[in-house]
């Protein structure tokens, strides 16, 4: 399955009033670092994912594409700190690429802030990073199978996921 950018997106409370939803034009994926990667899909909500650190439940990051997102409570500083904590995990050098979910408007995260955060992480210099992917706390929501297989290409802005190799 290919995950394509949606034409429109929203982070409104869809479950309340379907007739008055507010959709925003989608500019597509934001490429922060160029490249291609393939590997096991690992990730989820970043602050929740970080709760696995130091436990037997922390998955291996070897040969992985890390996909991360966060909710409207996160701000740029917290996201930066949580990402750095993940980078310090054993095996992070096995991450082949990173997909970042679209941030909700209330987080006040901007493309400029996100680019600055990513550019301060020397460990990310040589791996592809693509953001504004529709998963997490926005509509539409792509389902990414944890432990599945994925491929990403920033040149074609293409993301492919499979439940097996």
Can you describe what's shown?
With 165 residues, this protein is α/β, with parallel strands linked by helices. The protein has a single domain, classed as LD-carboxypeptidase A C-terminal domain-like (Glucose Oxidase, domain 1, 3-Layer(bba) Sandwich). It is built from three helices and ten strands; from the N terminus they run βββββαβαβαβββ. A hairpin with a 4-residue loop joins β9 and β10. The two termini are 12 Å apart. The model has no long low-confidence stretch (mean pLDDT 92).
Quick recap:
Helix content is 15%, strand content 29%. It has 3 helices and 10 strands. An 8-stranded mixed β-sheet has the order 1-10-9-5-6-7-8-4. The chain has a two-stranded antiparallel ribbon with strand order 2-3.
């Amino acid at each position: 399955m290919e995950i394509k950018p949606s034409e429109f997106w929203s982070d409104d409370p869809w479950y309340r009033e379907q007739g008055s939803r507010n959709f925003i034009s989608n500019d597509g994926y934001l490429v922060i670092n160029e490249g291609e990667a393939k590997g096991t899909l690992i990730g989820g909500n970043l602050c929740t994912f970080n709760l696995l650190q130091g436990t037997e439940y922390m998955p291996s990051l070897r040969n992985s594409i890390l996909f991360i997102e966060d909710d409207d409570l996160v701000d740029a500083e917290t996201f930066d700190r949580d990402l750095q904590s993940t980078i310090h995990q054993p095996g992070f050098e096995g991450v082949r690429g990173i997909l970042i979910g679209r941030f909700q408007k209330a987080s006040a995260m901007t493309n400029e802030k996100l680019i600055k955060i990513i550019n301060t992480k020397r460990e990310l210099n040589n791996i592809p990073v693509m953001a504004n992917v529709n998963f997490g706390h926005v509509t539409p929501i792509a389902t990414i199978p944890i432990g599945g297989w994925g491929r990403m290409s920033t040149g074609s802005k293409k993301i492919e996921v499979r439940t097996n190799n």
